Amino acid sequence: MNGAESLARTLLRSGVDVCFTNPGTSEMHFVAALDRVEGMRCVLGLFEGVVTGAADGYARMAGRPAGTLLHLGPGLGNGLANLHNARKAQTPVVNIVGEHAVRHLAHDAPLTADIEGIARPVSAWVKTSTSAREVARDGAEAVAAARTAPGQVATLILPADTAWEEGTGAAEPVPVPPAPQVDDSRVRAAVDALRSGQPTVLLMTGRVLHEDGLALAGKVAASTGTRLMAQMANKRIARGAGRVTVERVPYPVDQALATFADVRHIVLVGAKPPVAFFAYPGKPSELWPKGCEVHSLAEAHEDCMHALEALVDALGASGARPAFQALERPSVPTDERLSVETVCATIGALMPENAVVTDEAISTGRGLHPYTLGAPPHDWLAICGGSIGIGLPLATGAAVACPDRKVLALQADGSAMYTIQALWTQAREGLDITTLLFSNRAYGSLKHELHNVGASNPGRKALDMLEIGRPDLDFVSIARGMGVAATRVTSTSELARAMRAGLASGGPNLVEVML
Amino acid sequence: MNGAESLARTLLRSGVDVCFTNPGTSEMHFVAALDRVEGMRCVLGLFEGVVTGAADGYARMAGRPAGTLLHLGPGLGNGLANLHNARKAQTPVVNIVGEHAVRHLAHDAPLTADIEGIARPVSAWVKTSTSAREVARDGAEAVAAARTAPGQVATLILPADTAWEEGTGAAEPVPVPPAPQVDDSRVRAAVDALRSGQPTVLLMTGRVLHEDGLALAGKVAASTGTRLMAQMANKRIARGAGRVTVERVPYPVDQALATFADVRHIVLVGAKPPVAFFAYPGKPSELWPKGCEVHSLAEAHEDCMHALEALVDALGASGARPAFQALERPSVPTDERLSVETVCATIGALMPENAVVTDEAISTGRGLHPYTLGAPPHDWLAICGGSIGIGLPLATGAAVACPDRKVLALQADGSAMYTIQALWTQAREGLDITTLLFSNRAYGSLKHELHNVGASNPGRKALDMLEIGRPDLDFVSIARGMGVAATRVTSTSELARAMRAGLASGGPNLVEVML
């Protein structure tokens, strides 16, 4: 059995049974091995940003990493932006990156590049295999590195000769180190803060935002009156009826500062101290006020669920009853004009039970929270690294992970264009994804930002860099060109009809919402 | 004048008057400055791979660098693959990459990344500006670095506060160091080799493949009988009637080995010793045989044109008459079936005078050489770094550089999908580009490669990674969705008609050629 097959079997034995791929010549032995390895599902992306973003979406929903198969340094480069997002989301990903045979590297052939150098800024673990006999063991270590709390990007570089020479067969899984538990002093400090009688916030991200973690947080809130908040962007939040609702840190700096203005203690669970997304002249980066103390109950790499359980125990709050969200949703508006408000209300009205929602709605989506918090239970996946172009791939990966759930992709137009190729993968795999594509013909958020930096009356040349009309993109045509059914809507009732039909179709479809 | 405007004016004064952009918030001061800087043309790309590939195409034709404007680490990451191609093509590119304000970096905000780390593998020069008062000078140095022979990628990272704080105004251009001249011993060694009476090859790339350089090489060939060859892929070759025709090193290893089998001396002018594109089990990386001597007349960073002139002088060949290519082109075939042969012949028959041809035809295009070498004079731009997804951006940049010439983009379908967003930029800018999109519904070259690695009877799972049908891409629909006129052809006469009409239209258009 050659190195490539040994590696593929190792990944499988370590629990990686989905691989998103965009291979090239140097990965052909791995591709050839796939025919011989039962149980490994391979999903082709026509661009590597689709591959890495889908791996992120998959792992967020499956709770275990997918593999990616990428073609040398440039292929990894194309996947880098969504690996950056995965790194910031703390999602486990196992990248397999092909490389020239070792003897070929000295010749600086066209595709030769510093792959480790490209990998390092987005990877917690990077290794180049040096022989076919080590490939399987390296693969098992890569999976363990990816699964190390809170979830990491691991990149294994596979020279072609280590793939084609004789390997060892599958290696045993490498044990994943358990997340460290926090000591009592951290729990006691959190208890003291939450019982101080001063305004407090419990600021969370990561695993504790699943339903069970939120229920624990709800007990803390019921027992102490603390506000529950999640970071500005989170890899996955359980939301909707029957869950404990949390606020999110607002994106606009002034709004975020106002949110924390009176807060005297922030207790972090997996989250970092809240900071502005961008810096602005004359505005602070830190969002908490002077005199507010920031306490870390548990850092992201620690056992946050255990820390939250310990906090509940220390507060004597095990019997407290969380404030569970009631089912209360808007009706489809009678106002036929499509606006951010009518669109958000329609989404709130029609979101299906147990949906997975991927949110790259950007300027259109900032107001969605109140319209959707009382919808039927669902999971909400956001962009954590700020690099747009994750939405369509994220939906793709989530749908591969959850074939029995409906995926609703809320997608801005400008962002969609970065990884529009994801639609094709959705079509090939027949994924149950309804994409609402919000067409405002602009990088809407940037127009606000241009104003924020003091250019309030921009000229044509500046505006041309922020508006994506002239010509207008026709997403219906683009989607159909990739095999995805699509329709354009210009009124609220059309949106409602298209959304219902799309969700009922069971396959990939796109609704272009003209704002 | 703030740092951003100081930088924009510096770039302009240093001869950079086109900037391909995909900005974000951290670049808003630069965008705002554009309104105030006359003479800087800005071209928006909807994805950064379009931006960097267009900068490459622009510089190949303009002979001077364009700027790029990219959004932090992930934006640079998205542009990385085509910067890899630019690095291998030795094209000058000046990247301006936004960064958080310096004080914001400590907070590890979502978009914070190791930008220098991402830049280094593709850049010969990387710098992060540390104050608004240094930005202009840094910009002038970046341009000089990019223009240093043979052409380099320079990346200047621009923290937002160095853009928004008070700057210095435009800086003076920094002198570009002249390319070193080769000493006489190298010329004498080349003369000895070429006069040895044994089979020789003059192997070239870079600037010497322009018309004047080829004329010099033609004198060398006329005087010594040496074979003239260019590298496998070259940034720009002057071809067609009235030029000196050169062979190119073949891509298939066995064919390349056969090409050099009897050669006893290879004289390099800007080129590297010929090596295989990929390594294969049991085949060598080096393409020259044992007993063949490789001589370097001039390396890429040296003054190759001067070296070639010196060689002509030393050979006493100034008066020699090169073998200029006659105008002789195929007719449009009467065979109506579209095949690689009929397509290549039709292209040869209809290529317009003074065209710029961008070649990412991959498996369809390998046979184009004989059909087009006697066409009217034209320039041929190829992919030098092996990273597919350069074709459409390259055509875009070349058309921006050469508004009075017709650009013919020869484009494989699989490769097109990596940077398909380039079509939108072609539409917005009204560029005179005719794209022939060769639709074979496969990564055609990879199917050969799978066979090459010994998997001659692949199963469904492996084939699914190499075939891009199911669903078939409809490039007519995709192109129209981005504002580009498009038509599908299924016969030779339809192809000829569409190609004539497209070239006559004067604007961007795409012909989907069903193979």
Task: Describe this structure in a few short sentences.
Chain A has 515 residues and is an alpha/beta fold. Chain A is 37% helix and 18% strand.
List keywords for this structure.
homodimer, 515 residues, alpha/beta, Rossmann fold, 3 domains, seven-stranded mixed sheet, six-stranded parallel sheet, globular
Structure description:
The structure is a homodimer of 515-residue chains. The first copy, chain A, has three domains: 3-164, Rossmann fold (3-Layer(aba) Sandwich), CATH 3.40.50; 184-314, 3-Layer(aba) Sandwich (Rossmann fold), CATH 3.40.50.1220; 340-514, Thiamin diphosphate (ThDP)-binding fold, Pyr/PP domains (Rossmann fold, 3-Layer(aba) Sandwich). The model of chain A has no long low-confidence stretch (mean pLDDT 96). Helix content of chain A is 37%, strand content 18%. The longest helix of chain A is centred in the N-terminal third of the chain and has 18 residues, at 72-89. Chain A contains 20 helices and 18 strands. In chain A, 64% of the residues are buried. In chain A, helix 1 (3-13) packs across helix 2 (28-34) and helix 8 (184-194) packs across helix 11 (304-314). In chain A, strand 13, helix 13 and strand 14 (378-382) form a beta-alpha-beta unit. In chain A, the strands form three sheets. A seven-stranded mixed sheet of chain A has the order 9-14-13-15-16-18-17, sandwiched between helices. Chain A has 515 residues and is of the alpha/beta class. At the A-B interface, helix 2, helix 4, helix 7, helix 16 and helix 17 of A face helix 2, helix 4, helix 5, helix 8 and helix 17 of B.
